[in-house]
């Protein structure tokens, strides 16, 4: 099963989500991330995201930012969006109903309906990055449980 984590710049939230999710799933799951804007294409994640992940023993330093491309909608089974603006942007790029069905709001998929958006830490400080890490970590746990059970039953 192939999962794509998507945020705006692909340098803060989705690289963290990718790095965390990879630690929760067995190797036959493929996890990648992308952004809805081209601004940071080719860059490694934000230094604060790299540091926050490293504090938890996860290396995201080699990831490289890239925008979402049309082929992603065919290649990936699940496309998780970090906030509502990102979700609306990604949905608008999908070309048919099958592709639209793959797209969801990450925290809503994890069962967190009250606060369905991962806040953007880009304009914040290291505490905001740590808060995002904790939010993503809990949500990844929930989603990993769901995905393992889907993979087991199919
Ligand atoms: P991300 O955070 O979407 O979590 O990677 C951002 C990164 C860059 C910008 C905004 C948000 N930016 O405006 O450059």
* Content of β-strand: 5-15%
What small molecules accompany the polymer chains?
4-nitrophenyl phosphate
Strand order of the largest sheet: 2-1-3-4
Number of helices: 7
Low-confidence stretches: none
The count of β-strands is 4
SS class: alpha/beta
Cα distance spanning the termini: 11 Å
CATH architecture: 3-Layer(aba) Sandwich
Protein name: protein-tyrosine-phosphatase
Active site: 7 (nucleophile), 13 (nucleophile), 120 (proton donor)
EC number: 3.1.3.48
Domain Phosphotyrosine protein phosphatase I: 1-146
Topology (SSEs and partners):
Blueprint: E1 2-7, H1 13-24, E2 30-35, H2 47-55, H3 72-75, E3 78-81, H4 84-93, H5 97-101, E4 103-105, H6 106-109, H7 126-153
Parallel strand pairs: 1-2, 1-3, 3-4
The chain binds 4-nitrophenyl phosphate.
Describe the structure.
With about 150 residues, the chain is α/β, with parallel strands linked by helices. It has one domain (about 1-150): Rossmann fold (3-Layer(aba) Sandwich). The protein contains 7 helices and 4 strands. It has helices at about 15-25, 45-55, 70-75, 85-95, 95-100, 105-110, 125-154, and strands at about 1-5, 30-35, 80, 105. It has a 4-stranded parallel β-sheet with strand order 2-1-3-4, with helices on both faces. Helix 1 crosses helix 7 and helix 2 (about 45-55) crosses helix 7 (about 125-154). The protein is globular. The model has no long low-confidence stretch (mean pLDDT about 95). The chain binds 4-nitrophenyl phosphate. Belongs to the low molecular weight phosphotyrosine protein phosphatase family. InterPro entries: LMW_PTPase (IPR050438), Ptyr_pPase (IPR023485), Ptyr_pPase_sf (IPR036196), Tyr_phospatase_low_mol_wt (IPR017867). It is an enzyme of class 3 (hydrolase). One of its GO terms (molecular function) is protein tyrosine phosphatase activity. Its EC number is 3.1.3.48.
């Amino acid at each position: 099963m192939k999962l794509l984590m998507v945020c705006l710049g692909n340098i803060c939230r989705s690289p963290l989500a990718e790095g965390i999710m990879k630690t929760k799933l067995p190797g036959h799951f493929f996890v990648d991330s992308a952004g809805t804007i081209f601004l940071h294409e080719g860059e490694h994640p934000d230094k604060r995201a790299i540091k926050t992940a490293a504090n938890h023993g996860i290396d995201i330093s080699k990831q490289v930012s890239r925008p979402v491309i049309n082929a992603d909608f065919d290649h990936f089974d699940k496309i998780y969006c970090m906030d509502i603006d990102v979700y609306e942007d990604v949905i608008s790029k999908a070309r048919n109903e099958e592709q639209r069905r793959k797209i969801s709001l990450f925290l809503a998929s994890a069962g967190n309906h009250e606060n369905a958006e991962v806040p953007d830490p880009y304009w914040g400080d290291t505490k905001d990055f740590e808060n995002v890490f904790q939010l993503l970590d809990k949500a990844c746990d929930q989603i990993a449980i769901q995905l393992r059970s889907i993979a087991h039953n199919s």
